[in-house]
């Protein structure tokens, strides 16, 4: 009976973890991952100067104040929530080497409790099942369809853990944008912003907004009323061959008054699963910073 090699298992594990929150991750052969998403960057990242178009207009002139205000209303509402649970269904394109566009689907649940608890349960349309747990100290991951699991040390906040994953995996994780405690980069990266108009998403009245960044376009459907949940998100990667698109629908939002049980965020190795050691390169301390070494 053959056994999974440690190197192959590690590669499979990290690829699977990347796909858990990603929209356009190429889980199939003959593809390339989109290069940029409007993700929330690590603290300290400065905003680029708005470009000037061929007509001489500054990009600020292309940003509808109503669209920016509605986006801010939605992101301020979301970041103010101490905890939430949402169900999402994601359809994403994978452009093949011969130019064909294939579409795949994943769905699952995400539970977040600020500032240091996160759990995700994800099913892919090829039958794979993935889970990961973050408890403020460690990040645990299980690829249940391959009977693999691991656990690594993690930063003390959700934001830091998402930054760590982005740096390690080097793959876009668009849904992770909704999990940061600061979502202002979504607005800062928009060179153009417009209100498309009223729309209905799964029976809920929404306002349809569209934005353009340097290489990525994204659309957001914000629920109307006093609870402006983001009900739909679409991202187009303009500079990728075939302009692949990812569309996520968030069918359910829950914001319980009581805290989630700590058991939800506590990693437990699945029975019969194989442990895989993973080496995680930590960033070097920067010279001149407190505690850093030259």
Describe the structure in your own words:
- The protein has helices spanning 6-21, 65-80, 158-169, 184-188; strands spanning 83-95, 101-113, 117-124, 129-134, 138-143, 148-153, 192-201, 204-212, 216-223, 230-237, 245-254, 274-275.
- The protein has 294 residues and is α+β, with helices and mostly antiparallel strands.
- The protein has a single domain, classed as Clam (outer membrane lipoprotein receptor (LolB), chain A), CATH 2.50.20.
- The protein has a twelve-stranded mixed sheet with strand order 7-8-9-10-11-1-2-3-4-5-6-12, with helices on one face.
- A hairpin with a 2-residue loop joins strand 7 (192-201) and strand 8.
- Mean pLDDT is 81; it is low at 1-12, 24-48 and 283-294.
Concise structural overview:
The chain is of the alpha+beta class.
Helix-strand layout with pairing:
Blueprint: H1 6-21, H2 65-80, E1 83-95, E2 101-113, E3 117-124, E4 129-134, E5 138-143, E6 148-153, H3 158-169, H4 184-188, E7 192-201, E8 204-212, E9 216-223, E10 230-237, E11 245-254, E12 274-275
Parallel strand pairs: 6-12
Antiparallel strand pairs: 1-2, 1-11, 2-3, 3-4, 4-5, 5-6, 7-8, 8-9, 9-10, 10-11
The CATH homologous superfamily is named Lipoprotein localisation LolA/LolB/LppX
Strand order of the largest sheet: 7-8-9-10-11-1-2-3-4-5-6-12
CATH topology label:
outer membrane lipoprotein receptor (LolB), chain A
Task: Quickly name the level 1 CATH class.
Answer: Mainly Beta
- Structural class estimated from helices and strands: alpha+beta
Q: What gap, in angstroms, lies between the N and C termini?
A: 51 Å
CATH architecture: Clam
User: For the report, how would you describe the main beta sheet?
Assistant: 12 strands, mixed
> What coarse outline follows from CA principal-axis ratios?
globular
> Could you say how many structural domains there are in total?
1
Please provide the count of β strands: 12
Relative helix content: 10-25%
- Using only CA atoms, what is the Rg? 20 Å
Enumerate how many helices there are, as a single number: 4
